Amino acid sequence: TFPGTPKWRKTHLTYRIVNYTPDLPRDAVDSAIERALKVWEEVTPLTFSRMYEGEADIMISFAVGEHGDFYSFDGPGESLAHAYPPGPGFYGDVHFDDDENWTEDASGTNLFIVAAHELGHSLGLSHSDNTEALMYPLYKSTDLVHFRLSQDDVDGIQSLYGPPPASSDDTQVPMESVPPRPGTPAKCDPALSFDAVSTLRGEVLFFKDRYLWRRTQWNLEPEFHLISTFWPSLPSYLDAAYEVNRKDTVFIFKGNQFWAVRGSEVQAGYPRSIHTLGFPPTIRKIDAALSDKDKKKTYFFVEDKYWRFDENCQSMEQGFPRLIADDFPGVEPKVDAAFQAFGFFYFFSGSSQFEFDPNARMVTQISKSNSWLQC
Amino acid sequence: YTLKRAAKEEDISMDLARKYLENYYNLPKDVKKFVKRKDSGSVVKKIQEMQKFLGLEVTGKLDSDTLDVISKPRCGVPDVGHFS
Which of A142, A256, A298, B5 has the fewest CB atoms in 10 Å of its CB? Predict the structure, then answer.
């Protein structure tokens, strides 16, 4: 934060786009600013509304050279923009150097990335020395599709404003219509559900929204991280994940795509379409996946059915899909997440967890989904 | 000619570094003193501070990595201190 830790004393802030750059259509500028505000809105209780005239908390403008604040811009390159910490008058304002070539993509200087950084200043964040952070002072063309705040940015802004109010919407919806669900999930929320669960080199990862809990055998208290801390290019709000031990690989699914990660490295050649695994074109996403390490089979759960994939043959087995209810009696037909451990299959459906013995073909225990998280 | 060009390049680098330290690391604005004092403790300290903050190897010298980083586009807000 800045010296004296200036911050806004209210949670609803106004902004105004005072003028536009000739480099971009107006709606592209509007959209970049809105997206940049949303980056911070998602991890704080802050909300923003736009003003079209008068004095807003955050006045956003494009200017060249000397522009009235004794911090002249310097032509193309070097200083791209600056912004003032929270306060009245010019404080909170954002100025972009219009001698830059502002673009929607990474071909020039990407307006969204710079705006998100500058708005961080407007909200009270100073520069970070963490090179992964949005608030690191040097401009870098980030993977714009998978842009995420770093944990450092989130910790910084939440030290000023706290986390957003918890969300109660845990409904799984297709990728195309995933709404931004603000809120940091609470591990002991009795209604907690998981997006996906997978083992990884002896640990268990519980994915939820943009986060994961990491449960290791040597530390009963789970660690909590942003998914982007380990895999910056992966999406959040995952659908499914499973580990293939002999490949030392975790496969991660979202929508009709999947990624392969080995440790913290996303493997080349991904994402791939889920249809390369043998799913029919009508399947647009999967709900959960489970790897049976002993039999080298992977189960994919989609609505009330499941498919089985032979890891040896690398093909989907004949005779599938089958009904979940027929082969996993007692398990809720809609599965959010699943994994294998200690010879059991664990299925997660909403806030409930079903321990299933595949040999006895019966549910042996029902508990809360978050029972793995020391709750 | 070669010697003169090398000297000129060094001047440009020094000028760039001076402006960078003035703008972002609160180095007092005094051109002549900076050039004269480029090896003096306070300037070296500022260079080290900058290198540490930006994740560079802390040498206290304007090496090629440091010069490369300070010529990259960046946010105009100072890294240390605040707007005066």
Answer: B5
